[in-house]
Amino acid sequence: MGVAAGHRLGAEAAADPAPAQTTLTTLTRGLEVLEVIASSDGTATAKYVARVCGLKPSTCYHLLRTLRALGYVVRTRDGLWDLGPQAGRLSRRIQLRSGPSPELAAILTGLHNRTGESAYIGGWFNHQFVLQHLIEGRQSLRVDTLDIGYTGDMHARASCLSVLAFLPPEQAEVMFTDAPLRALTAATLTTEASLRERLTRIRRQGYAVDLEEYAEGVCCASAPFFDQQGTPAGSLTVSAPRSRFDARADFLVTCVRESAILASAFLQGGRLARPGRNTPL
Predict the structure, then answer these.
(1) 236 part of a folded domain
(2) Does residue 81 share a domain with residue 110?
């Protein structure tokens, strides 16, 4: 939620004529507290939350009591803090609005089952490209910063680059205006020139590969799918540790490309059918 929230707030600030100094510090701190609790899986203590958020204990307890009164957090019998029912309701509403259709979710499940690797689907929500759903692989691999709703670091993620490559160049460039191309690993592209060259190559080959550009030791293959107007509507992606990805790269690329073709066929024809077949799935 941290980086994603930052990008959302940045976009809103650009559209909102109100000066940046009108930001409410208390609200910001409350959201930071909620974020820390959400990422702690029910193990957060008040002292831990205060330390991570850089708050005085008294301030942290005041925020926790407020969030608890509103139902966004609860205190367990062990004295730990966890998400409350109101946070769950909010999450469900967001996922219903921003998540993929059942048909696209089924394609994602098929991609995961076929590869055994972590599989992701991304798409547009409120003019931003967001991670809509993920299914973790059967073998241990977890990139902690990636979660549903994430929008950050598009320059380093194959799932985003595979879509940006098929947008009009001026539209893709606008999405990077004033966005720092920060180096997440030694392999991350951090210049506009290298990014443009990369997008040209992706557009030519029809898919994107991330070789430890977003997270060290993790590689991804991603392919875009398109709506009836031929506009990139989203992407399907798989990720794997570098050693396993190197051994299966061709297979993983084939899987994401075939799944993306299936997704495009659904968006353009209104039903799930394997390419070249008339029988719906």
Answers:
(1) yes
(2) no
